[in-house]
Amino acid sequence: MRSFAIVLLAAGLALPVLGGQYNAVVDIGAPMPSFSKLPATDGSTLSSKDLHDDVVVLVFLANHCPWVNGMDADLVKLADEFKGKSVRFVGVALNHREDDRLPAMKVHAATKGYDFTYVYDENQKLGAALGATRTPEYFVFDKDRKLVYMGAIHDSPAHMTRGGEVLYTRGEPKTMYVRDAIVETLAGRPVQIKETRAQGCTLEYEQ
Amino acid sequence: MRPAIAAVLLALTLTASPAVHLRSVTYAQWQKELARMRGHVVVVDLWATWCAPCLERFPRMIELAKQWEPEGVQFVSMSFDDRNEPGSFDHVLKFLIAHDARIPNYMIDEVLPEAFDDFNLNSVPAVLIYDAGGTLRARLTGDDPRHQFTEADVEAALKRLVRHGS
Lengths: 207, 166
Fold this sequence. Notes:
The complex is a heterodimer of chains A (about 210) and B (about 170). Chain A has helices at about 1-10, 65-80, 100-110, 125-130, 175-185; strands at about 40, 45, 55-60, 85-95, 115-120, 135, 135-140, 145-150, 160, 165-170, 200. By secondary structure, chain A is of the alpha+beta class. Chain A is globular and about 40 Å long. Chain B is built from six helices and six strands. Chain B has a six-stranded mixed β-sheet with strand order 1-4-3-2-5-6, sandwiched between helices. In chain B, helix 3 (about 50-70) links the parallel strand 2 and strand 3. Chain B starts with a helix and ends with a helix. The chains are: A alpha+beta (about 210), B alpha/beta (about 170). Chains A and B meet through helix 1 and strand 11 of A and helix 5, strand 6 and helix 6 of B.
């Protein structure tokens, strides 16, 4: 029976879906997993108990990923928009390839102008608990630390080309999913679009 | 490099490796291609040159293609490179030639988010395995942190399907 279940799981077939539409692990309403003393690019550490804002945005990133690089400016702009509001952005990396580890994260954060905490989830427990599998992938939590949105930043995923240009796959973004989720949550309204497909690079879990 | 020189170099490379081809297909055209392969177990390697783990895995997939060819298994590659990025088709073709990918190679001719929706995929790498009747029998992806696939899963699925018929 166990081997049969493993076969089905490996094939992604037939077992009941426990997560969301695009997430195999969590669904909207899930609690934010607790985490402790994740090292950050600024030399500090961050624990979930340190987060006191009304909205917390966790975004999974990978320095090497062209989709992260393509949407870095959108992320920085979005975080800037909510400066002075009770919103906390936290970037999270977890890949073990050298160009995604903490030393490279420090360079990336400085180069891209990340003005928010960027932590390294080396044991990958936070990412696994959230079912995060792509970069960039956003998880927005309300004041009670319940998940209110997960997925892409907006409706036109962008990547960095080989020539160093940002190329939006659907032209100028029209619907800003994460911004809308934050605004609605701050206003105490339910989030209208709760889940989208976060297109990007695959996060690599050490099995 | 001047475009004319680059074109000549690409042509020379193509001449040196005539068995490696790449075809751009819409999702509808891909479905027809897949239907034409009925009678064979088909392994579709979904990848992209922007995907670091895909590039690392690609040589192993070519090895597996050679290994399983005598048993009638057809390996196919489908690139999810962005058709709108200048030079993307040639870039994919060069990679395929460099890896002597003598299997049917395709590049999806769709806006990428729509391609991911069509294949119901979150990202690449991923592998789809169809039985000889064209039924999807294994969908190996990285979409679950607890069960991201490896090439060992591809081999295990093929052994079940080809040698044990299950």
